[in-house]
């Protein structure tokens, strides 16, 4: 039994996750804003080997992670355009799932916010119980 499952808007691309999530976070980075067309991404980090993605229209767009200069694969559905998962080379043990594509997401609660330096002003001013980091999570 998968722990989590999800799919894109059109349903061509679906995935399962066989392990528990590592972290749930809000990402304010410029790339996430542009990729989603929204103010930020709500993401769930899972062990990369636990993620199985399938579907004939699975595509990937490569971006460069600013802090490390390393490539990041951003998987999406080429039929409907939904972003699904992000695979940064700098974090090889992790797959980052766009939480809006999960089948069961109502109970998700982000623990941290990252790339707060790029956050929209109205979000930057919001008081929050969450830990906020100006860029990536500190190493370790
Ligand atoms: Zn699709
Ligand atoms: Zn981001």
From TrEMBL:
SUPFAM superfamilies associated with the record: Mss4-like
Start and end residues of each CENP-V/GFA domain: 4-112
One Pfam family, short name: GFA
Entry-linked Gene3D superfamilies: glutathione-dependent formaldehyde- activating enzyme (gfa)
GO MF annotation terms: carbon-sulfur lyase activity; metal ion binding
Family of this protein: Belongs to the Gfa family.
Protein name: CENP-V/GFA domain-containing protein
Organism, scientific name: Patulibacter medicamentivorans
């Amino acid at each position: 039994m998968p722990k989590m499952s999800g799919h894109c808007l059109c349903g061509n691309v679906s995935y399962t996750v066989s392990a528990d999530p590592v972290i749930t976070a809000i990402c304010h980075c410029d790339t996430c804003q542009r990729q989603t067309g929204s103010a930020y991404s709500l993401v769930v980090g899972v062990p990369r080997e636990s993620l199985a993605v399938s579907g004939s229209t699975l595509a990937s767009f490569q971006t460069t992670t600013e802090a490390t200069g390393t490539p990041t694969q951003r998987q999406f559905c080429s039929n409907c355009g939904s972003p699904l998962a992000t695979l940064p080379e700098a974090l090889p043990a992790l797959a980052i799932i766009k939480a809006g594509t999960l089948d069961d997401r109502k109970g998700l609660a982000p623990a941290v916010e990252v790339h707060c330096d790029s956050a929209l002003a109205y979000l930057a001013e919001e008081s929050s119980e969450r830990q906020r980091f100006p860029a990536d999570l500190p190493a370790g």
